[in-house]
Specification:
mainly beta, elongated, about 5% helix, single chain, disordered N terminus
Amino acid sequence: MGVFQIISPGGKSLKCALLLAVMAFTSISGVWAQALAPELPDVPALDIPNIPNLKGYANPKAPANNPFANEPELVLSAKLSDNGQAIPRGLVWRVFSPEPGGDGKLALLATAKGGTTSFNLAPGSYLVHVAFGRAGATKRITMTRAKRTETMILDAGGVKLNATLSGGGRIPPDQLRFSIYEDHADQSGERALIIPDVKPDSVVRLNTGTYQIVSNYGTANAVIRSDIRVEAGKITEANVEHRAALLTMKLVRESGGEALADTAWSVLTTSGDIVRESVGAFASIVLAEGEYVIIAKNKDRIYQRDFKVVAGRNQDVEVVASEAASSPATTNQPAEGEEPLD
């Protein structure tokens, strides 16, 4: 507790205890508080009943709190083939009611992920579906009061896809994509797409059967189609060969010169079909082996060059802006008697 000192003019000191001042102020404040505070009635103590065996929380995993805990157990595992090993991971299990609901769909009752799993199910019939990648199998299972163990055979395998250039050249993975289609076509002649945009060297799980593989190198016309057979319990590796090349086109005033900006490019087949169009000083395109017509438009002039693509030979292609290769750009004129187009 602090003490302060007052020094008189004559040099005598008077000591006053700060404690006395604080005690006096506290006493006065207490009187004011009693005068201002209203009188409150006495509140009776709350009588809490004594509930036996009351727990602080309910454990959802406890058998007493799980309505299916006392139901018979269904243990499920899956194999790729009859003589294969149980799949340890990557499975998706779904249990459905066998009868459709009011919306015409089967009610999903339970799900699980991983390898071997189990469900507690009341006696009755169920549809159990297991998926492993794009491979899957469904089976109707009837539960009784006894525990049941079921192994489902997927009859599935895998496929690993890749592609090279003619002569064994490597294709950059970011320019290579695969699509997997069904083997048979529908009434319109189209095949159903199963998996799009498959990256090279990735393993895709599929049911046993024949599929059509479409390999795209680049985004133009370098496309290879082939059929592949998937066998149960095996990984089938397929490596297709592209007969194509990467071209980088530029319009120059003289051979070896700088590329001209704001150039519009068109690549056509010799029959006049447009393969690809783009705009820029440099235009890169992957083309299948064959002969093409390259057209470059800059300002009001059009320049043209015939070119042959050789498989596996990537090249820089120059179109020289010379009078011999140019013609004036013209707009489409309406036929006689027709109104001009806006």
